[in-house]
Amino acid sequence: MEIRGTKVIVRAPLFTSREEIDRFVNQHRKWIETHLKKAEAREQLKETVHKLTPEEVRDLADRARKVIPERVAYYAPLVGVTYGRITIRRQRSRWGSCSSKGNLNFNCLLMLTPPEVLDSVVVHELCHRKHMNHSSRFYAEVLRVFPDYREQHRWLKEHGDELMAMLGGS
Ligand SMILES: [Zn+2]
Known about the structure:
This protein has 6 helices and 5 strands. The protein is mainly alpha-helical. It has 2 domains: 47 residues, no CATH class; 112 residues, Metalloproteases ("zincins"), catalytic domain (Zincin-like, 2-Layer Sandwich). A hairpin with a 2-residue loop joins strand 1 and strand 2. The longest helix is centred in the middle third of the chain and has 26 residues. The mean pLDDT is 92. Bound molecules: zinc ion. Zinc ion binds next to loops. The site of zinc ion (ZN) has 3 residues, from loops.
């Protein structure tokens, strides 16, 4: 069973009776309701949020290209790592990433988050220079450098979808 857009899709083996399918759906009603509500909220958000114009996105990216390298340069020695190239992207999927070569990518939308949130993402990616995973050792390192991490991460979880939706289609 999956939610696609705002539709529920139930896959069943051939010859499954209608009653069996109904029973299955009934048993999972709670799950369906929660996920449908989330999907609908997401769809609505896409329509109602302010869509950034290309100029606004360019402006964010320009600012990000100035600010983010400074934050990376500040935190890298605290984490105790080196890094490669820093690239600013407009993305609807992620806030940052770190390649095995140490090249860092950051989403230009980070310029719309509070500075502590931006810093938490910077520290997260820099800590991947030590641990290329999300293990407990990785998070221990993140928390050593940035004790406030969980709170900032929560902010991103709560507001991230809305910010990403500002990039609109494409
Ligand atoms: Zn990560």
